[in-house]
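Blinded run. Sample ID left blank on purpose so nobody reads anything into the name before looking at the predicted structure. Input follows.
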Amino acid sequence: MPEITANGITIHYDEHGPADGEPMLLIMGLGAQMILWPMELVEALAGHGFRVIRHDNRDIGLSHKFDGAKAPGVVRHALMRRIGLKPRVPYTLADMAEDSAGVLDGLGIGSAHVVGGSMGGMIAQHLAARHPQKVRTLTSIFSTTGNPKLPKSRREAIKALTQRPASLDEEVLVSHGKNVARTIGSPGFPAPEERLEARTRALVQRSFYLQGPVRQMAAIIADGDRSKMLRRIEAPTLVLHGEDDPLIPVAHGHDTAAAIPNARIRTIPGWGHDVPLELVDEIADEIARHARAAGN
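Blinded prediction complete.
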């Protein structure tokens, strides 16, 4: 697995597609390794002629871990934010955006089409706002502005995402991961058991690190409402969102599209908070069409 020093830390990444294709950077979400971008989607985008780059965010997968860095608990952090206090966090979403910018710099890429999913969408928003020259187009997938007035996640989705596994035994971790995937996944496109099993086991065997998502969640909470920042984004923007997302309800997608000048939104019924195999070609076609329309 290739690695690169970006923003002062080691980031693991991979590349697919033609070396001379227009670069496309995929940024994953909370606690999610880069391989959670399905290879079928990566290959579909590469098939459209893009040089597709995935990377593990800091504190997850095979990238740098911030061992020992303390983050406030979710409840305490949220309460402090509510009363106007800003607890210290190990790093911010802006720092994570600098990691992504550093990956592009390290690969000698001046600008790329940037695609972010969930927290990755938030990171991509920061990248587009802070480094407009690096972002040819932005695609924000099942992400949000952070507007506190928007609908909350379903209780069962939050419970599945925040509940710790009973042990670090591989079978327990696989069962735990499958439960999370089922709970936040697409009701209209449930993953076949054998595919879910294989994907979850591959994730567990590649890396399992409980502390990273805690610090990443702290970065999300600390970021607050990005609506004002999003109004500065100049990159042509596409928002993709599932109409049945239990973790980040579709209203968040509409709010994102409303906040970014001239953004276009496409919602899909039955789609939750994952990338089902049945939607891979449709999603890839939308992203490719959006990138091509920008004329870069």
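Unblinding after everyone has recorded impressions. The mean pLDDT is 95.
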